[in-house]
Amino acid sequence: xxxxxxxxxxxxASEDGAHELGGKHISGGELISTYDNLKNAVNVLLxxxxxxxxxxPDFLQIQFELIDKPITKLxxxxxxxxEVESVKEGHSIAQSLLEIAGVPRKCIEKAFEQxxxxxxxxxxxxxDIRSSVRIDNRNEKGVRVSRMDWLTTNFDKWSDHHxxxxxxxxxxxxxxxxxxxxxxxxxxxxxxxxxPEYITGYVAGKKIGxxxxxxxxxxxxxxxxxxxxxxxxxxxHAYIEYLExxxxxxxxxxxxxx
Length: 258
Ligand code: WAQ
Ligand code: MG
Ligand code: MG
Ligand code: MG
Prior knowledge:
By secondary structure, the protein is an alpha/beta fold. It folds into two domains: about 5-70, no CATH class; about 75-250, no CATH class. The protein has helices at about 40-50, 85-100, 105-115, 150-160, 170-180, 235-245; strands at about 5-15, 25-35, 60-65, 70-75, 80, 125-130, 150, 185-190, 200-205, 210-215, 225-230, 250.
């Protein structure tokens, strides 16, 4: 262990048994930590799982591992907020944004038809925009994006500048969306939480940035959604490798205001 080393720390928690034994997904989390901060990092993830609105976990796993690659820095996607009155209006705006981002109408319709059946996952599904079918072979697991973070001090400056109440949730979502959208094969992302009390979701993409939509599901609904719309995926394995393994730090610079 040397001074400049970073560690990937990951957590998953479920109820009524481990995920692989059919348990209900409660909470997951991933962050990057220095060696000296590991105790705190593990605690942040433990706290997240133990106080979760989806339930009380009876299975929890936290692991850390040394990151053996240089960490790429990315600027956060520009953020926008779309205020809507109803879920119906929210979905309609989400569909328009996906179309602007480059997802064909037919593919958007197909994806929305399958949202309910794909809602119990702990990861994301990959949806091909040409064939309009799900192409990851991860079943009820999905693909979990990992090895990404944003220093709290820098995130707090960003939140302050954008007049957004800082929260772990917004930080995690914008970090993930920034990492995912940066890959050339990603066309867009659609997301809303599986936490019953959180109804704001987003559509993200290179062209449109991170577009929050204030209502994408009803309060109390435990069905979430996370779909990555992808194009030109000749190498699915390399794409998933990027999502799971490429280390990313998001960093905002006040001068280049976005
Ligand atoms: N990698 C892949 N999929 C993930 C990951 C990940 N690291 N984390 C979560 N998911 C999937 C998984 O299927 C979850 O069920 C689903 O996404 C929702 O996750 O106000 O809180 O963490 O700007 O519940 C977006 C809006 C909040 C934030 C999204 O999602 C805002 C949210 P949650
Ligand atoms: Mg419970
Ligand atoms: Mg999350
Ligand atoms: Mg959740």
